[in-house]
Amino acid sequence: MKKQFTLSVLLVSAILVLASMSFDEETKTSQRNFIFSMFNDEPALPETPFDYGDISFPAHINSDTIETGYEGDHIDTTILDIVQDDKSTLGRVLFYDKKLSAMENMSCATCHKQEFSFAEDKDLSEGISSLTKRNSMQLNDLGWSNTDGFFWDMSFSNLKDMIGLPLKDENEIGAVIEDVVVKMNATNYYPELFEKAYGSAEITEDKIVDAIANFISSMVTFNSRFDQEANKGFVGFTEQEMHGLELFKENCGTCHKEGSFAFNQMDHSNEIIFELPFLFTNGLEKNPEDVGVGEWAPGFDGLYKLPTMRNIAETGPYMHDGRFETLDDVLDFYSDDVVETDWSFLIPPGGFQFTDSEKSDIKAFLETLTDESFLTDVKWSDPFASIVNIGNTEVLEVAISPNPMNSYAIIELDNPTNELVQVELYNEVGQLVKSDSFSGSTYQLDKNALVAGMYNVRLQSENKYKTIKLIVQ
Predict the structure, then answer these.
(1) Taken in order 391, 397, 402, 408, is the CA torsion positive or negative?
(2) Last residue of a domain, one of 387, 408, 433
(3) What's the CA gap between 319 and 317, in Å, rounded?
(4) 5 CB contacts (<8 Å, ≥6 apart)?
(5) Are residues 38 and 86 in the same domain?
(6) Domain assignment of residue 64, yes or no
(7) 24: phi then psi, degrees, rounded to nearest 5
(8) C-alpha span between 326 and 330 (Å, rounded)
(9) What is the band of 395 on the pLDDT scale with cuts at 50, 70, 90?
(10) What is the pTM of this model?
């Protein structure tokens, strides 16, 4: 497998024709049926896979004798036995590869960024055609902590099912699995990665989802100060952090545990919602536009998943709608602004009435739950990153609309010094069908003799470049 790349690999549009389809009105073929790859952008992977599968749970998580203030609750520590090195390696590549998306412009990592513990620093994420409905949740510790339900509305009880939905959702990854398989088979790396992971180079949807599930399940944050101190009696905690731990345990610990609330023996794990609904109220006013669990369980409006507190300081903004920017905002809310609802059993009316000092102490404790190494560990990083922006190469800021185009499309770019910009248009088979140049910030591309289909518009100005996919109707 290739591991090294040159600048020329980045700058040459090597367009592979993997399939061709027509816009037949009877079959109503969508733009997502066009299959293409622009660059020979292969991942840089180590000869020996990273160690994903050797996961050791800290002793304090299931201990009946160690008082931590943020306790485990009947955690099945065998739940991560599924994690294998070669499968997680494949899952890492899939997680970051934009070839999975219909327009090759999004990956799982677009909305789940490592530096934010695989959350995103936005209240709502930008989908293909509109903002997402809810805030992008962090993925750290998702494979083992609070596995009673996935997504904010807890509508899925299986991690693989959770992965499959955004993978094929038209506003998220928008993958057409049949097309993705064709594109993957045309690469130099996927057949080999699937062979190593599954003993066969055959690429299937089940394997894609399983590999991503392996990668996500490997994302554990067991190297926080909290974990390091828990088995030592917190002798290294400051007085403030220790007081914050005690306050958290007394006021927050009933709901914010690390396990599955001892309900994992149920046939349908999200039945916990019907048994203990008050655990899942967030103290916010009900919103008829987003009723949470009530979307699939009538009568249980306003209930949402409890995310892990691990790495919580890195995952803002907070709540399902991202309304709170900081931990300070969250603590202020639970102190003074809680809205009483049908489920307000564990939250005092109006809030916990924390003093400013108590809020600072709780925040100090929550920050001990951060595993800094997780945010930078290369085994969870982007394997394609080494081929982006090499040397002095920069990417032009370009927009093109309308796209799809009918009779024309306007190209807009940031070009304040009116540098000469070369524009080239390539069809699906990689043929240059138009070449021109212009100075300024706009350029009109006319349809003229162009036939319906997918094109690649390439723009270059000195050491800046950009390629955009354009659909001609």
Answers:
(1) negative
(2) 387
(3) 7
(4) 41, 42, 44, 386, 387, 390
(5) yes
(6) no
(7) -70, 125
(8) 7
(9) low
(10) 0.73
